[in-house]
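Tokens for chain A. Residues wanted.
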């Protein structure tokens, strides 16, 4: 990402959250997140340990979930969803483009791809990241009141518009990752993380 684009994202984020805080009231906790299935296609999931208190304060999410999904003949999947009932100064969705490098993961590839879902064209972000000798494929998108948005700048404009028109700025980040290991190639991780995302998508477009 160029410095100019990074600065633009920061400026839009600041303007959006400040304006949204003056125009919106918090939305209720999404029931879809509470009811998120533990079985997604061939994968069966379980909750993982919550973040420590400091990390939770930094994220500022109203509610979040972390789960690990496993399947007999497919790559294990990690799922993280953070929901924000209202964007406000110092409390808003954290982009993986910024959060992952902050935890030591270096982006090697960043692109926007089409999941090819049954709902038609569904574009999400894809990242190939590295931390020491570990690599992982990451997919993520912003769930904004029934819409799937891949781009950070676009998501901020949508939230700003919704704040003006509907008085709402609730949104969630959906992040799915699969490790690339000696037994799982990058292509295999891509295939499985995309299959998981397609199966999960109807449950998380709140």
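Reply:
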């Amino acid at each position: 990402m160029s410095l100019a684009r990074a600065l633009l994202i920061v400026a839009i984020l600041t303007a959006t959250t400040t304006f949204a805080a003056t125009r919106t009231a918090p939305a209720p906790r999404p029931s879809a997140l509470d009811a998120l299935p533990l079985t997604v296609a061939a994968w069966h999931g379980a909750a993982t340990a919550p973040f420590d208190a400091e990390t939770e304060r930094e994220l500022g999410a109203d509610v979040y979930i972390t789960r690990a999904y496993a399947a007999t003949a497919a790559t294990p999947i990690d799922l993280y969803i953070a929901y924000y009932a209202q964007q406000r100064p110092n409390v808003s969705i954290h982009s993986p483009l910024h959060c992952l490098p902050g935890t030591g993961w270096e982006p090697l590839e960043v692109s926007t791809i089409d999941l090819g879902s049954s709902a038609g064209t569904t574009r999400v972000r894809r990242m190939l990241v590295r931390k020491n000798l570990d690599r992982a494929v990451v997919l993520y998108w912003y769930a904004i009141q029934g819409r799937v948005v891949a781009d950070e700048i676009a998501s901020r404009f949508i939230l700003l518009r919704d704040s003006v028109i509907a008085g709402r700025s609730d949104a969630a980040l959906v992040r799915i990752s699969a490790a690339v290991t000696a037994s799982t190639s990058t292509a295999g991780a891509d295939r499985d993380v995309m299959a998981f995302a397609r199966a999960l998508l109807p449950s998380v477009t709140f």
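The beta strands are 39-40, 43-47, 63-71, 74-84, 106-114, 123-131, 134-144, 147-149, 171-180. The chain has one domain: 3-203.
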